[in-house]
Structures are given as C-alpha cells and as structure tokens.
Amino acid sequence: MIKILDRYIGIEFLKHFLFIMTVFSIFFIISDFFAHADTFLKQHASFLLILSYYGLSLPWYFYQTFLFTILFATLITIAIFSKNNEIMAMRVHGISLWATVRSIFLLTAILSILTFFNSEFLIPVTQKKTSTIYTIRIKKEKKSEFYFGERKWLRWGNKIYNFQRIGSEGKVIKGITIFIMDRKFYVIERIDAQNAKQLTPKKWLLTHVIWRTFEKGKPIVTFKYPKRVFKFPNLSKVSEEAENQPKQMSFTRLKEFIQKNQKTLNKKTLNRYMVDLYAKVAYPFGGIIMVFVAIPFALKMGRWGGVSVSIGIAIGIGILYIILTSLFDYLGYAGLLNGFLAAWSVNIIFLLGGSVAFLSLPQ
Questions:
Q1: Do 90 and 169 fall into the same domain?
Q2: Do 160 and 91 fall into the same domain?
Q3: What is the extent of the structural domain holding 345?
Q4: Rounded CA gap, 117 and 106, in Å?
Q5: Count: domains in the chain
Q6: Phi, psi (deg, nearest 5) at residue 186
C-alpha cells in the first residue's frame, strides 16, 4: 500500500512540476522574443535559427526557475490532496506524515542533483552557443567577444583588446592592450596604456601610452605618449556580460580559476567569485529546503483555499527568497560575510523555519 501511495503522490508531483516548468519556460521565451523581435525581423532570422536559439536556452531557463518550480509544485500537489481530503484519509489509515510526503522529498533530491549537473555540464556549453547564434548568425556582427575571469578580451574587426579591469559602467578601464592584426592574423601593431577614460561613445582618452609597430614579428618602431585619443567600441555591454561570466561558468571551472589566480585577484573580485562558487551548490539543493517550507503551508491552507491560495503563498515565499538572497549576496560581495555563509544563509534560514513548521505538524 505504501509503495502504491509513493508512486501515486510522486506521479502527481512530477505532473505539476513538469507543467509549471513548461509554463515558466514559455513565459521566459515569449518575454525574450518580444525583447528581441525587432532584431529578428531586421536581420531576417530564419525560423529554424530562432528555434535553435531558444532550444539551447532551455537549460538556462530550467536552472533559473528550478527552486520556484519545486515550491509551486509542492504547494499545489499537497493543497489539492488536502482539499480533496486525501491527506485526511491517509492519516485515518495510520499513514504518517513522512510516509505521505517522502516521495516528494526523494524526487526533489534527484531533481536537485540533475539541476546541479545541468549547471556543471550543459549550461556552460549551451550559453556559449546561444551567444554565438545571437551575435554572429542573427545580428551578423563580425566581432566576437570572450572573457575569462579577472581579465576581459574583446575582438572587434582586426583588433583584439585585452582589459585588466573594466569599471561597472564600462566607462573607465585600468590596464589595456590592443593588438592590431593583418589579414593573415599576424600582429602588426601593439598599443599598451595604463588607463583609459571614455570621452564619447566611441572615443577614449588613453594615458601613458606605448605604441609599437611590428614587421615579421619583430618590433621596429616604438612611440610613447603621455595621452592619446583612440576609437573603441562601446564597452558597457562588455562590462555587464563580464560581471555575469562567473555565474555562467561551471562549479569546477570557477573553482580551478579561483585556486589558480587567488593571489592576483583583488579582494572585491575574489569575494564575488567565492559567493558565486558556493551559490552553484546552494541554489540547486535549495529545492529540498523549499519542500520543507511548502508542505506546512499547503497542509494548513489547502483545505480552505486550494490552488489559488497556494499560488499566492508561493509567490510571497519566492519574493522573500529573492530579497534575502540579494541581501546576503551583497554582504558577501562587500566582504562582510565569507562566501559560504553568503551563499547558504538563506537556505539555512528557510531550512530552520521550514523544519520547525514541519515538525509542529501532527506526525
């Protein structure tokens, strides 16, 4: 009887999980499509190209909405059982609360592991491909952008830019090197500058400039300028995407990068990377904690409000989770908390609250 019950509850939970995940994914796709519809139409992007772009974006959408899908699915599943008096029938027949909900915990644990592996293996590959499809195949831009860790790289036409650090708004640069290539991709000029400041969207003032020209790989002329104006692409987008880069890297790759460059990274950047590193584990396994939080609410409110009340509760819990996560991330980035505590504090708070509420229920 217990095995049959586990299968029944597990199947109902999975049905709601897959339905809600599909709804969230469609919502994200529609929102993103309308945001980029002008570009698709202007560049005459084919249907198959757009389809491949959004198909490869699905792993990222699944990851972003995982916790909230678990929360909604648990609340709705238990609320429906409670409203239909199925929970009461189980309790009358001597089935404990844990036996009633253990299949949900087990499935959530499996889904959490799959979500972690999704972020570890699928997302880094698919995000790179979606960026390539949108930038090169849809927008038909000749430039390619790539970043790794502390230093940022940008290819624009026949020039390759290397930035040591870009300001948050992309208007100030510390440490810059520009390689100018010929048609055979040989370096013919190299420009180094200590700092750069944006004057207009395309003009930059460089200070302490060293300008070298090359022939057959050997420098032939070197010029030095205290100040010099150059034309650059707009770097605000480069800075924004570079800041988000650690979030799109796998746990293993980011950990290796931190270990390799820990001594050279400035404290602020290292704090940010450590928070993002621990968050890559804290986020997917937060799904189990969401089940602890959702079940007491669903059992207490399900009999009166059913699905509508459960959805409202899920939205409220989700908003609270986002606010607290942003707060603790900020504390971690500022160095007021270490990376582990900043990433796991919200999960710990929700786990304590959910556990107390869960244990207070009649077992």
A1: no
A2: no
A3: 2-139+267-359
A4: 17
A5: 2
A6: -95, 145
